[in-house]
Amino acid sequence: MYHCKVCNYESNAVVGFTQHMKLHSNSPNCPFACGVSECSRVFRKFAAFKSHLYRDHKSYQRSLRSSAYENIHRTLICQIEFCQSTFTNLKEFVNHLKSHIQEGRKIKCPFRGCEKEFGVKSTFSSHISRTHRNSSSEHVHETFFDNPHQNMGQSSCTETEIVEELGPEEALDTELFLKNLSLFYLKLQAKLLLPASVIQTIIEEFQDIYDLAQSDVFSKLKQKLSVLGVSNTTITNVIEELKKEDVFRQGNCILRTDQRRKTVFKTAFNYVEPQPLYLGANDSGKECFAQYVPVKETLGALFESDSFKKQYAESHSRLSTNNNVLEDIWDGQNATDNALFKSDTPSLALILYQDAFEVVNPLGSGRKKHKVLAVYLTLGNILPHNRSNIDHMQLVLLCREQDIKYFGQEKVFSLLIKDLQDLEDSGIVLRNGSVVRGAVCAIAGDNLGSHSIGGFLENFSRSTFFCRFCDIDRQTFESSPLKTCSARTKLSHQQHVEELAACSTDSVGGIKFDSVFNQLHYFHVCQPGLPPCLGHDLFEGIVSYDLALCINYLVNQEKHFTYAELNQSISQFKYLGNEANDKPPEISPGSEKLSGHAVQNWCLLRLVPLLIGDRIKNPLESRVWQLILLLREVVGYVCAPKITVDQVAYLNVLIEEYIQSRVELFPAHTLKPKHHYLSHYPELILKFGPLIRLWTLRFESKHTFFKQCARKLHNFKNLCATLAERHQLFQAYLGAGCLFPPTIQVERGTEFYVGDYNEKIKAATAGLNFTQGTTVATNEVTVRGTKYKKGMYVVLGQDEEGLHMGGIKLILIHQNLVYFVVGMQQAVDMVDLGVHSLTDTDQESNYTCVKQDDLLDYYPLAEYKWRGTSMIIFHHSF
């Protein structure tokens, strides 16, 4: 039985199943999944999916066909005169009837409700195949049984007995077809961002072409039926009935205008209507509006998605029980100390993100005029690997930046604060009657945005108080850069707010006003509630400036290499694995900062030992080179997706050592506020969990949708309303399918037959019950968004001898679990370079099979050849 994993449709016929799967072609995040229960293969393209079914599951098709003729425990009797042969197998009975046709006799179709007679064997076979291929012994007319009054439901067969290989001409699911057509038009409008006028042209022109083609088909049909003697009246009536039942024409009639399509989109799918929030009239007398998407309605729409409900349940079942390990926000003190989150009742942890972006050329005449402030929402209840997927991120608010500056945060965020307070107190009521409450656990953003929304001073270069985490002043920071002053608390913040209200100054202790988000019961900006963004602080801040400073010193002072040699290494280096997508740009001679974006700078920092390490004459004696390696180590721990409390303490020591060395080596180059923020990272990791879970770069990717939307639509009148509606249509489109991609995705693979592989693989997989019918072998697989390929390396374990690595030789998928057959090797730390070299590079000594879930670290690594040695560059610490 072929089973559809989208809508639970089932079919015994591969033809019917493949045709059904076409009806899901426009459902988002619903790849074509194999309908065989033991197979976990999914495909992006229908052709590959169909080829897989016919090529890799021939034995399964044969088993379905053979089940049609298995013993039915009832005796069938041939009704031909003087024959009276008996059978207990339906296939044998049908073949026997064919033998009578060969004798020149006419036989009657044995199935109930069919009165046709046949004198030609091929015609009878074709009739059985097309009309009765899903029929079983239960459908045979009672007169063909030895006991005509026997209950036809007593058959012991549990599967439908298919009579022939080909499936029946199943009736098209009209409702599903119309849904698929609606999703196609919605995809054009919301995902591909085509203007409504373009979509209207496509529909009208395609309908005209379809009508012409259909008229030609009906004309030819009329001619052929006339030759067969069918009257013109009958032909005309049949054609008219076919036109009336044409589902494509019916669908286009329903969706024929932009207004009709929007009505269908908003009623048929989980569409959450943006609410215009009237702000008032500005200096020009123009009425201004923000667009607010109700948070409670958004959360309710999410719970309508089966994929989200599954994710919500799974995230709670996977909460860490090891207090010494921090893997997610739930392990941080902010979550464990939150009265709502630590209660026994179900709760939602909201992560908000705010940022302003330009939808036009930032150097053009429209800059600032169309700059938009956006607030997005994600949930800590979503598993971390899916949280970085921008599709599920929800829109909360859009407002022109100049409007929020003019009217103030209290007015712009008024509806949001009201909804969040209601969510804390009353929660949302689900369909099953249960109530789920929620609270904000963090508001992410860059430093400027976080200080703006938190009510802190936003001048980082000149203001006395520049830190939102402690009360340090600029003079103290410049004289004692390692010092962190008293942490800001809810109480100290309130005292500053009261002082501010009592005096006439613009700020007190770095605070300009009391943030509207402090009105919430379970959130405060000084919990802390505004986490740092390591993308901005580290890769576009400290790494960008300090690495450029160190390189300049190595070039001009120690003269280990030139900028030309460095840039030649950068441009000619063979980047592998994930680094191939983030190649760093060349470095301008004497530049104060790197020119790459955050991920490119991170890539350069990781690979710098292989780019210039061989040119450093005495690496252990060069303090600047050691400073680079120290920065790499700091970044490795800060970016770790899992970190222990002991490692956090060690990170604190590393950061202090780095800042002290940075001051000593480059006294003329003053530290930046971001260096001070870095000193808070250890305590912030304990508060929020791994900071990589809250960095803003994935949120910033969400801006791309709105920028493309504005540029493609060429309509800047009431821009926020246009963008909000388009985005909510896009979310309605996504909600019609699966919000998250499959956990395991395999494109190309074959059934695993151990006899086809060498002795080492046979030995590694011995005793693991990897059978041919239940195991798929492949060279590439994606697990929780991470792609593994043959030839990559994974970290197997660690002991007193060092790290144990495994070079992937074969990937196996068995019962929805991923296994790697790897060649085991030892990784040796090269202290002077900050990288690891691999021993036993021939990998002939030992093969083993390891489950993906059992790896010490999930991240796959590339093998780099450097001066004849195999090198491994770790992505982060573990």
Automatic annotation (TrEMBL):
GO molecular function: zinc ion binding
Residues covered by the C2H2-type domain: 32-62, 107-137
Keyword tRNA-binding: no
The keyword Glycoprotein belongs to this UniProt entry's keyword annotation: no
Top-level division of the source organism's lineage: Eukaryota
Keywords for the protein's UniProt record, in alphabetical order: Metal-binding, Zinc, Zinc-finger
SMART domains in alphabetical order: ZnF_C2H2
PANTHER family: C2H2-TYPE DOMAIN-CONTAINING PROTEIN (PTHR31912:SF35), IP13529P (PTHR31912)
The name this protein goes by in its record: C2H2-type domain-containing protein
